[in-house]
């Protein structure tokens, strides 16, 4: 047998990609303590906490309007399943946390969707889970967005979208451009 045949199968690791945006980032540098573009290993039994208290939080946001612990992420395996997931919990008494269209009050928690936008105050975070098999640890990889994530997510293609929100290029059967009519006309 060759050494390749005898080698153990490499285990894939779940990676949580998080893209951060704040409109004042260039002036206030609230993300200066985050390690961007580098995978960081987190033990499975450890809570990944985000907030301004560097003694408690692994991911620090340098902003006095952010709670000492803003939110936490817990890695877990679903009961009677091999599926690995994250649970997000709002740890702020003052600020509600939005996960896509779900509002979380203090100590409320939900499963983190495969791809979602997390918002609090002026902060926008795009979270995307890249699935893996390891149950001992997971990775995080942080990115910095140049433009608002909500704006970027609403425009999936580079095609301009008219004010009506309907892109006529997505309806190939309609070759003519929209016509403006008076609301009294039929």
Automatic annotation (TrEMBL):
GO CC field: cytoplasm
Disordered: annotated span: 166-186
Keyword Cytoplasm: yes
Residue ranges with Polar residues bias: 166-177
FHA domain location: 49-121
Lineage: Eukaryota, Metazoa, Chordata, Craniata, Vertebrata
InterPro entries in UniProt: FHA_dom, SMAD_FHA_dom_sf, TIFA
Subcellular compartments: Cytoplasm
Name of the featured protein: TRAF-interacting protein with FHA domain-containing protein A
One GO process term, biological-process aspect: positive regulation of canonical NF-kappaB signal transduction
Keyword check for NADP: no
UniProt keyword terms in alphabetical order: Cytoplasm, Immunity, Innate immunity
Taxonomy, superkingdom: Eukaryota
Pfam families: FHA
SUPFAM superfamilies the UniProt entry points to: SMAD/FHA domain
Family of this protein: Belongs to the TIFA family.
């Amino acid at each position: 047998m060759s050494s390749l045949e005898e080698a153990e199968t490499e285990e894939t690791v779940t990676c949580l990609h998080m893209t951060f945006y704040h409109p004042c980032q260039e002036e206030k540098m609230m993300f200066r303590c985050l390690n961007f573009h580098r995978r960081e290993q987190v033990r499975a039994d450890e809570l990944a906490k985000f907030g301004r208290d560097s003694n408690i939080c692994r991911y620090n946001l340098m902003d006095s309007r952010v709670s000492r612990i803003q939110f936490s992420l817990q890695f877990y395996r679903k009961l009677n399943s091999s599926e690995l997931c994250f649970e997000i919990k709002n740890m702020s008494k003052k600020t509600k946390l939005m996960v896509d269209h779900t509002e979380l009050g203090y100590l409320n928690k939900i499963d983190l969707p495969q791809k979602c936008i997390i918002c609090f105050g002026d902060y926008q975070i795009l979270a995307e889970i890249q699935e893996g098999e390891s149950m001992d640890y997971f990775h995080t990889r942080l990115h910095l967005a140049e433009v608002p994530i909500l704006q970027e997510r609403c425009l999936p293609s580079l095609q301009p979208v008219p004010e009506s929100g309907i892109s006529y290029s997505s309806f190939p059967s309609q070759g003519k451009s929209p016509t403006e009519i008076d609301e009294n006309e039929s």
